[in-house]
C-alpha cells in the first residue's frame, strides 16, 4: 500500500503564490509518517489536495496505483480519512453512535455490520460508555477519538491527522500514539511535536518553502 505524490503544484487563486511548488513524496502504508514543516509551509494545504477538497494546478496523487483524479470527492473520502486540527468542526450528529453510524449507512452496510463496527471502534477508543451521549458535551480529546472512530469504522486505506496532539495532555497524547500504532491503514501525522514523532512515527517527510 502506498500514497505517491508526484510533482504537485498548487496556488490559492486569491493570492497566486505557489504554496506547493513541485512537491513529490512517497508514503508507504505500513508506516506511520510524520509530515513536518514550519507554520504556513503548506501542510494543511497538502492534506486538502490529497483529500480532493482542493484541486492542484498540476501533478498527480496516486493511491495504491489508482490516480485520485479519476475518483469523486466522496470516493476519495472513503479511501482516505482526514481528522482536522479542530475535530469538533467535523461532528454533526446528536449522539456518539449516530456520528459513527452515519458514514456506515452511506457505505450501504447492513444494520448488523454497522452495529458491530460501531461497538468495535467505540471499544477501541474507550468510548463505549459515551454511546448515547451528545457529542458536543465531550472533551476535546474525546471529540477527537469520536471523529477517529467514525472514520476508522469506514475502513479507509489511509488516515491523515492534522496536528492531532496540539491540545492534548501527555496522557492523551500517549493514548493516541499507541492507538494509531495499532491500526492497519497508512497513517500520516502532521505534527511539530518532536517527542511524539520520535516515539510513534517510523519516518519523517519534511516540507520546506521553495522560492521561485
Ligand atoms: N484559503 C486560503 N487562501 C489563500 N491563502 C491561504 C489559504 N489557506 C492557507 N493559505 C496560505 O497558504 C500557506 C500555507 O498554509 P497551510 O497549508 O495552512 O500551512 P501549514 O498547515 O503548514 O501551517 C500560508 O501562507 C497560508 O497563509
Ligand atoms: Mg496547518
Brief rundown of the structure:
The chain is of the alpha/beta class and 212 residues long. It contains seven helices and nine strands. Helix 3 (96-106) crosses helix 4 (111-124), helix 3 (96-106) runs parallel beside helix 5 and helix 4 (111-124) packs across helix 5 (140-152).
Query: Which molecules are bound in this entry?
Result: adenosine-5'-diphosphate, magnesium ion
Order of strands across the widest beta sheet?
Answer: 6-7-8-3-9
CATH topology descriptor = Rossmann fold
How many helices? The count is: 7
Strand content: 15-25%
The low-confidence runs, each spanning 5 or more residues with pLDDT under 50, are none
Describe this structure in words.
This protein has 212 residues and is of the alpha/beta class. It has one domain (2-206): P-loop containing nucleotide triphosphate hydrolases (Rossmann fold, 3-Layer(aba) Sandwich). Helix content is 34%, strand content 25%. It has helices at 43-51, 73-79, 96-106, 111-124, 140-152, 170-181, 194-200, and strands spanning 2-11, 18-28, 32-36, 58-63, 66-67, 80-83, 158-162, 186-190, 203-206. It has a five-stranded parallel β-sheet, sandwiched between helices. The radius of gyration is 17 Å and the shape is globular. The model has no long low-confidence stretch (mean pLDDT 95). The protein binds adenosine-5'-diphosphate and magnesium ion (MG). Magnesium ion binds at residues 43-44, 162.
Amino acid at each position: 500500500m502506498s500514497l505517491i505524490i508526484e510533482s504537485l503544484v498548487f496556488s490559492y487563486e486569491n493570492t497566486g503564490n505557489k504554496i506547493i511548488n513541485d512537491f513529490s513524496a512517497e508514503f508507504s502504508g505500513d508506516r506511520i509518517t510524520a509530515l513536518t514543516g514550519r507554520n504556513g509551509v503548506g501542510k494543511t494545504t497538502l492534506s486538502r489536495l490529497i483529500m480532493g477538497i482542493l484541486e492542484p494546478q498540476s501533478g498527480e496523487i496516486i493511491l495504491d496505483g489508482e490516480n485520485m483524479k479519476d475518483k469523486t470527492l466522496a470516493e476519495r473520502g472513503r479511501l482516505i480519512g482526514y481528522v482536522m486540527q479542530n475535530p469538533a468542526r467535523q461532528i454533526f450528529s446528536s449522539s456518539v453512535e449516530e456520528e459513527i453510524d452515519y458514514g456506515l449507512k452511506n457505505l450501504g452496510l447492513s444494520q448488523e455490520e454497522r452495529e458491530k463496527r460501531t461497538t468495535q471502534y467505540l471499544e477501541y477508543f474507550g468510548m463505549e460508555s459515551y454511546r448515547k451521549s451528545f457529542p458536543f458535551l465531550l472533551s476535546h480529546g474525546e471529540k477527537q477519538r469520536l471523529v477517529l472512530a467514525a472514520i476508522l469504522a469506514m475502513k479507509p486505506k489511509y488516515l491523515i491527522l492534522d496536528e492531532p496532539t496540539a491540545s492534548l495532555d501527555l496522557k492523551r497524547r500517549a493514548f493516541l500514539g499507541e492507538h494509531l500504532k495499532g491500526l492497519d491503514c497508512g497513517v500520516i501525522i502532521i505534527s511539530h511535536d518532536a517527542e511524539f514523532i520520535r516515539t510513534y512515527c517510523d519516518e519523517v517527510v519534511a516540507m520546506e518553502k521553495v522560492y521561485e
